[in-house]
Design a protein that fits this description.
23% of the residues lie in helices and 33% in strands. It has four helices and seven strands, in the order E-E-E-E-H-E-E-E-H-H-H. Strands 1, 2, 3, 4, 5, 6 and 7 form a seven-stranded mixed β-sheet that branches.
């Protein structure tokens, strides 16, 4: 699995709002872009392809900032499905307007920008708007690392 968080110069992270009919974590905020690495493709090429499909942007692998790779096993509380993912995380410095990001049909509802400082102090009720891995120790570490890039 590859995930990319877009971040802005003003210290925000852009999240994709998952479609209400997604099979896993419907109607929750997730990484800006994400997808499964297909056989024969590199993680970096998958990231570039997923960015194009899910936002309409064309970026190069050189523009991706590697954050880390980690294993995560979690259960979707709504569906009971278990996910066992090896996640490779990237950041991408996005200089455009969030309104210019094109939502992939059937995948998402839209995008939301959240200040990193607010994410690091978010209350439990607001955390429920996000996929659970966002506020796992690994997820919080990613927010800290992206904050250092701003």
């Amino acid at each position: 699995m590859v995930n990319i968080y877009f971040f802005t110069s003003t210290g925000e992270i852009i999240f994709q709002h998952r479609a209400k009919d997604k099979d896993i974590y419907p109607d929750l905020l997730d990484t800006t872009v994400g997808g499964h690495v297909e056989m024969g493709m590199s993680v970096e090429d998958t990231a570039v392809q997923e960015i194009r499909e899910e936002t309409g942007l064309t970026v190069s692998t050189e523009q991706l900032i590697f954050i880390r790779t980690f294993q995560v096993v979690y259960t979707d509380a709504r569906t009971g499905r278990i996910n066992n993912d090896l996640k490779t995380m990237y950041a991408y410095h996005y200089n455009g307007d969030i309104k210019d990001l094109q939502v992939e049909e059937g995948e998402g509802i839209g995008f939301e920008a959240w200040p990193i400082e607010k994410l690091l102090t978010l209350g439990e009720a607001d955390k429920k708007r996000f996929v659970p891995v966002a506020f796992s120790p690994e997820g919080l570490e990613i927010f800290w690392k992206i904050q250092e890039l701003v």
